[in-house]
Write a structure and sequence with these properties.
- With 347 residues, this protein is mainly beta.
- The protein folds into two domains: 10-181, Galactose-binding domain-like (Jelly Rolls, Sandwich); 185-345, Sandwich (Jelly Rolls).
- Helices cover 5% and strands 41% of the residues.
- The chain is built from three helices and 25 strands.
- The protein has helices at 19-22, 126-131, 286-292, and strands at 10-11, 25-26, 35-39, 57-58, 63-64, 67-68, 73-74, 84-102, 113-119, 135-142, 148-152, 158-167, 171-172, 174-181, 194-195, 204-208, 213-214, 233-234, 244-262, 273-279, 297-304, 310-313, 323-331, 335-336, 338-345.
- Strands 2, 3, 8, 9, 10, 11, 12 and 14 form an eight-stranded antiparallel β-sheet that branches. Strands 15, 16, 19, 20, 21, 22, 23 and 25 form an eight-stranded antiparallel β-sheet that branches.
- A hairpin with a 2-residue loop joins strand 5 (63-64) and strand 6 (67-68).
- The chain is globular and about 65 Å long.
Length: 347
């Protein structure tokens, strides 16, 4: 008998993210150090796949020793009372705005409902987490087949670990946890040089005029160098006067001493030049801060950029004292992989 050859994979469509998700980062991204710690059962599909950053895929005709291969977490059919669960360690401690519980490609085997609990723990040991005090931050919510489920969280506290409960069993293709990291930089005030805008230190994207390509503006703040041209902030080709920009908030107020602009993988589409404005902001909303940013002081005057390179600036950085926000201007358009703002936390 001829062996069956699996068909071409079918990738899940992206989620239509609401504004609260677009302005957040995925705290459950392995890029930030997130990982699964265990599950009550992952017989059909190992729980670690649930956090993969790539879109979920379905491969027709692909089987393993336990049955149909599925791209996600899938438990066996439960024949006793109870429900299945999985433990997730977030990449960084953070305040959660909501979730994307994605059941893409799970049709007759998706869970009818999900709830999520959270805790703060210094330990990743299963026994310690099982004994921890857990708070429900997403009540039992209905799920459907092969869909993105965008579910908001009302908790204003910061958390380190999640317990994902599915009722009673089934499969989740992907879990995204949208929120804002709480970096705790205030406790590091002194002479230590830190990347004050790094997402793991609490930096975040406040606003931007365009992000037509690439992943998102928040990618500028991710750890490490970009992995490809899609791993960064890239705007459309500008056909009118002006320039593109984004406003970023630092994880803590501090004085900037060194700036790095990385155009990794951007070759025929890197910006010709860049400049940075900055200010110490107290109060206001994201919208009012964006309006004010037009008139902020210059932290870095216009600098020439080149393709696929790390550009480091020290002598060109103005000594403005402590700042909380920057406006990153690129001229006229293009793509940047990473932005680093090295400085010292204000005492």
């Amino acid at each position: 008998m001829a062996s069956h050859t699996p068909g071409a994979p079918v990738f899940a469509p992206p989620a239509d993210l609401p504004e609260w998700a677009q302005r957040s980062v995925d705290l459950a991204s392995p890029r930030l150090g997130a990982r699964t710690l265990g599950a009550s059962d992952d017989f059909f599909a190992e729980v670690a796949r649930m956090l993969n950053p790539e879109p979920a895929q379905f491969v027709p005709g692909k089987y393993d020793t336990n049955g149909k291969w599925m791209d996600g977490w899938e438990s066996r059919r439960k024949r006793v009372a109870g429900h299945d669960w999985a433990l997730v360690k977030l990449g960084v401690k953070g305040v959660i705005r909501g979730f994307d519980v994605d059941t893409s490609h799970f049709t007759g085997n998706y869970p009818p409902a999900v709830s999520i609990e959270a805790t703060v723990s210094l330990s990743d040991e299963m026994d310690a987490l099982q004994a921890a005090s857990w708070t429900e931050i997403l009540p039992a919510s209905t799920l459907g087949p092969s869909s993105h489920h965008l579910l908001e969280c009302t908790s204003n506290d910061a958390w380190t670990h999640l317990r994902v409960n599915i009722f009673p069993d089934g499969g989740i293709a992907r879990l995204r946890v949208y929120g804002r990291p709480v970096g705790g930089l205030e406790s590091l005030s002194g002479d230590q040089l830190m990347d004050l805008v790094a997402v793991e230190n609490g930096g975040r994207a406040v606003s931007w005029n365009d992000a037509s390509f690439g992943s998102s503006v928040s990618a500028l703040l991710l750890p490490g160098r970009g992995q490809n041209m899609g791993d960064g902030w890239e705007t459309r080709r500008r056909r009118e006067p002006g320039n593109d920009w984004c406003v970023l908030e630092l994880g803590a107020a501090g004085s900037i001493e060194k700036i790095e602009v990385d155009t990794a993988f951007f070759k025929g589409n890197y910006p010709d030049r860049c400049a940075i404005q900055a200010a110490f902001v107290t109060g206001g909303t994201d919208r009012s801060i964006t309006t004010q940013s037009l008139f902020w002081q210059t932290l870095l005057p216009e600098q020439k950029l080149s393709m696929d390179a790390v550009h480091s600036f020290t002598e060109q950085v103005a000594q403005l004292g402590p700042i909380t926000h920057v406006r990153f201007n690129i001229f006229p358009d293009g793509g940047v992989s990473r932005l680093r703002l090295w400085g010292k936390v204000a005492r």
